[in-house]
TrEMBL record:
<feature type="compositionally biased region" description="Basic and acidic residues">
    <location>
        <begin position="30"/>
        <end position="48"/>
    </location>
</feature>
<feature type="region of interest" description="Disordered">
    <location>
        <begin position="12"/>
        <end position="61"/>
    </location>
</feature>
<protein>
    <submittedName>
        <fullName>Uncharacterized protein</fullName>
    </submittedName>
</protein>
């Protein structure tokens, strides 16, 4: 009977140790609140649109007015 009592005491000690470790590990898993309020903020962000397909482009060397004037003065051939 004495061996059984010692076994129960060891089991109870292990359970108590694991429960203490469980709460400290749960605290460690929770995110820190340092700067969390600043990040969330009161204002909501506007959703961004889809990513641009034109990541790199060459800017025009002429003004839009000059390009449109050239398009207006050019003659196009009729197709079909």
């Amino acid at each position: 009977a004495q061996a059984y009592i010692q076994y129960e005491e060891v089991q109870a000690a292990d359970a108590a140790r694991h429960s203490r470790l469980g709460t400290s590990s749960q605290l460690a898993r929770e995110p820190s609140h340092r700067g969390g309020d600043r990040r969330k903020g009161d204002r909501s962000r506007e959703p961004r649109g889809p990513p641009s397909t034109f990541a790199n482009y060459t800017p025009l060397n002429k003004s839009r007015e000059a390009i449109l004037a050239e398009c207006n003065s050019s003659e196009f051939t009729k197709v079909g």
